[in-house]
Amino acid sequence: MQPSSPSIESTYTHLFALAESDETLPSGAFIEADFQTQGRGQRGNSWYSSRGLNLLPSILVRYPYLCPHQSFRISILTALGIIDTLQNYVPYPQNLFIKWPNDIYYNDCKIAGILIGHSIEGLYVRFSVIGIGLNVNEYSFPSILPNPTSLRLINKKEIPLKEVREELLKRLSDRLPWAEGKYWKSEILSEYCSLLYRKGTWHIYEDLKLGGEFLGKIETVSEEGFLQVRDKKGEQRSFAFKEIAYLH
């Protein structure tokens, strides 16, 4: 465990560099900061967080024999660990969802984001770094952000940050070991898919592979991380990261 830093460029970037340079850095090592000067989100986006109000940890995981095609398991287990945590802090836990691939929603608002990067060596994943941004006590977001929320806004009161941090780390430590082959079960993927945002309802999406908008219904996610969407013609479309955009 690395001590909390008052300010850092990015906990994710810093931990990834440490893991690259130090093979002895153990699985489970993490760093956190009160503030990130260049916080990172998915697709090259930045992550907004006021100083000292939210959780911004990054966690190192190492699995001896995890293949690249199995690496989405880490995203699955991280999302479930965050959901496990948030269920204790929201009035309606059934309204927590996973917006594929890496966002956590409460109702239609984003409360957390996940950024995961891997170092591949030969046939296996050498290590992975999980970056998490969890909005705990943020009370004012920039207007450019479309739909953010926080535990403070949901509950209309400040939430003990240390308590949420301890709960999050405990839940992740319970979940993440299950990525290894001897522990992995198909029921874990089923649990993840049961929590998918917009699952089973018709919405408009943009196909970034072929171009054009279409009406579709999210059905499931494959173990490799491909989103499966049924269109109005009854055809199932499969999407990797950055190949589909949620519209209406």
Automatic annotation (TrEMBL):
The keyword Ligase applies. It comes from the Bacteria. SUPFAM superfamilies: Class II aaRS and biotin synthetases. This is BPL/LPL catalytic domain-containing protein. Keywords: Ligase. GO terms for molecular function: biotin--[biotin carboxyl-carrier protein] ligase activity. It comes from Porphyromonas gingivicanis. InterPro entries: aa-tRNA-synth_II/BPL/LPL, Biotin_CoA_COase_ligase, BPL_LPL_catalytic. GO terms for cellular component: cytoplasm. Residues 1-180 form the BPL/LPL catalytic domain. The keyword Ligase applies. Pfam families: BPL_LplA_LipB.
